[in-house]
Design goal:
Pfam families: Glyoxalase. This is Bleomycin resistance protein. Keywords: Antibiotic resistance. Belongs to the bleomycin resistance protein family. One of its GO terms (biological process) is response to antibiotic. With 117 residues, the chain is an alpha+beta fold. The chain has one domain: 2,3-Dihydroxybiphenyl 1,2-Dioxygenase, domain 1, CATH 3.10.180.10. Helix content is 18%, strand content 39%. The protein has 2 helices and 9 strands; from the N terminus they run E-H-E-E-E-E-H-E-E-E-E. The strands form 2 sheets. Strands 5, 6, 7, 8 and 9 form a 5-stranded mixed β-sheet that branches. A 4-stranded mixed β-sheet has the order 1-4-3-2, with helices on one face. A hairpin with a 4-residue loop joins strand 8 and strand 9. It is globular and about 50 Å long.
Length: 117
């Protein structure tokens, strides 16, 4: 294996791509017939697939993003003012500083960095 790229369901592709753009990702729509998109920030890549019947209350999608500085990412995402639920960063018993963001499509993004020391 070389790498893995999660494919996340979204109800509306254009809104999802705009949300990821505001969170600092480079975004691109697939130019074929499907409503599909690509988001990337550094080595992190996610794909989003439009699924109009997607119900965020019954579908469980999650992704964990390891970052250099969870507090800096949290501050940037807070400033982006995107819809959804953004939790505060906290130190964990497993040695990470992390926070959670649940987007309007119901995807849980857990974001963490190693604690120093």
């Amino acid at each position: 294996m070389i790498r893995a790229v999660p494919i996340l369901p979204v109800r509306e592709l254009d809104a999802a791509l705009e949300r990821y753009r505001r969170l600092g990702f480079a975004v691109e729509s697939y130019t074929g017939g499907e409503r599909y998109g690509f988001v990337q920030q550094g080595p992190v890549e996610l794909h989003v697939s439009e699924s109009p019947g997607h119900d965020p209350l019954t579908t469980n999608a999650m992704v964990y993003l390891y970052v250099e500085d969870a507090d800096a990412v949290h501050a940037a995402w807070s400033a982006a003012g995107v819809e959804g639920r953004l939790g505060a960063p906290r130190d964990t018993a497993w040695g990470l500083r992390e926070f959670a963001y649940v987007d309007p499509d119901g995807t849980l993004h857990r974001v963490g960095s190693k604690l120093s020391g």
